[in-house]
Amino acid sequence: FSSQVATVTEYGAFIKIPGCRKQGLVHKTHMSSCRVDKPSEIVDVGDKVWVKLIGKEMKDDKLKLSLSMKVVNQGTGKDLDPNNVSLDQDERKRRMFRDYTSQKITLEAVLNTVCKKCGCKGHFAKECFVQPGGTKYSLIPEEEEEEVAAAGYERDKKTSVADDSSKKRKK
Predict the structure, then answer these.
(1) Which terminus of the chain is less hemmed in, N or C, by CB atoms within 10 Å?
(2) pLDDT digit string (tens) for 68-126?
């Protein structure tokens, strides 16, 4: 319906409802499909605008009406969203955003444990996913542990080469 702007605030504009003394709010998010920082840049008091009723709420025995300008063509007054699809999408977007910055993040890491089931470091037996005779996985070792393991590997390699050569001589 066509109506007139009664007042403009920092959060939107109040619109006179024709045929009654009520006013409805067009929030700045419902003024345009583009971002609106200052509603006074879009409308002024006394401007004729086309609006659509998108919601009503009873609060403290008062009826609060929510209006939208962005779903109505401001030239012709044609409803651009007759099935309220874009309004539903906007509502879903608003609901999906949650501010998780205040929540503390905790890691459930268990570093210095050895699994009783598979013998690998970094998890408990109840969390073990290894199948009997399957591949074993463990945490990636720290740099210091890698150096110690590499030195142990070199030592094991030398002894196995020596064992192999002694086995060949015996044959």
Answers:
(1) C
(2) 998 888 888 888 888 878 877 777 776 665 666 666 656 555 567 777 777 777 777 77
CA pair distance 3, 11, nearest whole angstrom: 19
Pairing of strands 12-16, 62-68: unpaired
Give SS3 for 147: helix
Count of helix runs (H) and strand runs (E) in the chain: 2, 6
Both structure tokens of 31 = 């003024």
Question: How many CB atoms are located within 10 Å of the residue 90 CB?
Answer: 18
Tokens of 111: 């570093």
Contact 61, 34 (CB under 8 A): no
Q: State the pLDDT at residue 161.
A: 47
Q: Which two tokens stand for residue 10?
A: 């920092």
Q: Please report where in the chains the tokens 């008091």 appear, as a residue.
A: 45
Q: Is the dihedral of CA 67, 73, 78, 81 positive or negative?
A: negative
Give pLDDT, residue 138: 59
Task: Supply φ then ψ for residue 6, to 5 degrees.
Answer: -90, -55
Query: Which amino acid, one-letter code, is at 91?
Result: E
Query: Residue range 57-72: average pLDDT?
Result: 87
Contact 64, 56 (CB under 8 A): yes
Distance CA 6, CA 13 (A): 7
